Amino acid sequence: MKKKRYAVVVTTYGEVEKVTVRNLWPSSRKILKVVTRQIVKIPTAMIYFIADFRSTRHYINWKLNRYCSSLLAINRAQTKIVAAAISESGSPLLAKASITVVDAYYFVPPYLDVMLPQLRHDYDGIVVVPMIPVESAFSCGVACQMVIDLYGDTSFSKVKVMSKLWQKDRLHRIYIEYLFSQLSAPVRLCKGGKIGLVLVIHGTLVKNRAGNPPKLFTGLEETIAFFEVMKRKIMADPENIFHDVRQGCMNHSTGGEWTSDTIEKALLEFKREGYDGVVMFPYGFFADNSETEYDACKELEQAGFPVFQYVRCINDSPAFGRWLADEVLDELQALFNLQSAFESVACKP
Questions:
Q1: Which end of the chain is more exposed for a tag (fewer CB within 10 A), N or C?
Q2: Pick from 113-122, 143-152, 169-178, 267-276: least confident
């Protein structure tokens, strides 16, 4: 039996690595076309104006603060870890299929929507791995739409887009062990004081401009449920040092009403309640990016707590990479089984 060929695409938004206005322009335009237009109607001519304004603003801000995004470097490292873990897994599927793991991005090259047609031609099946734990139209939904645009009704037998990763117990355990292992000495030595934890996640739309629930899938219920389960497990852990855990959403400013439990609100409440220190952990992102390591971290630094710590995203943690590889293998096995079933039916007279 001829081995099947499968491609695994580890994908995320993507941010420019070399900060120039020329590099930022196409990225900003794609974001507006793909994501922002789902929330607000933007005339085509305005897309270029808004995108160019945003690009210039980011360029000045990041250059002045000497910031360069680490998102692509992290995603490439995650891709290598997943590929190595799959190769070393000893999975029975490896005897029946060859598996190639690559990285791609929504808004910077190599573009996912350009790569998918190429992979469709060269491989028997594809598993797309959006590197965001909570799915919505703004995150994993971007990959889903690209797949639907390419495959149409045949997508279920050719490609799988992974989702609902936030529900996995093993991920929760990896997160908690990682978080406590990263706590600094000043934070640990502050046991006599009150230490708060802000779990950072991308916020989502609650009501549109008319005051109604949005028609698109926002992932609001999933965002709330993910926070509740993580807070419960962190507070119940024997190593817990936190007096309370608060959600810290990072919102946009357009489209209507966004999630109210923001980073700013959490920090202000901790300050008002006399907390001695705060730890921030972006659990809603699998990789650090400008929103986490720059925007969120800056809010924490400026909050004025005597003790504070920013714990980086799970990034290229080996435990996380091995877990993700196992999840990918499960998806590949399911795809292999489905295709085999279709082929056996097709062979019957």
A1: C
A2: 143-152
Residues near 167 by Cβ (< 8 Å), separated by ≥ 6?
A: none
| Greatest distance between any 2 Cα atoms in the chain | 76
Phi and psi at residue 79, to the nearest 5°: -60, -45
Tell me: the pLDDT tens digits for 234-246?
999 999 999 999 9
Q: Domain residues of the chain, as ranges?
A: 4-166+318-347, 167-310
Q: What is the pTM of this model?
A: 0.92
Contact 43, 136 (CB under 8 A): no
Distance CA(231)–CA(227), nearest Å, equals: 6
CB atoms within 10 A of CB 87: 13
Residue 87: the pLDDT is 97
Tell me which of 3.40.50.150, 3.90.1570.10, 3.40.50.1400, 3.30.1330.40 is the CATH number of domain 167-310. 3.40.50.1400
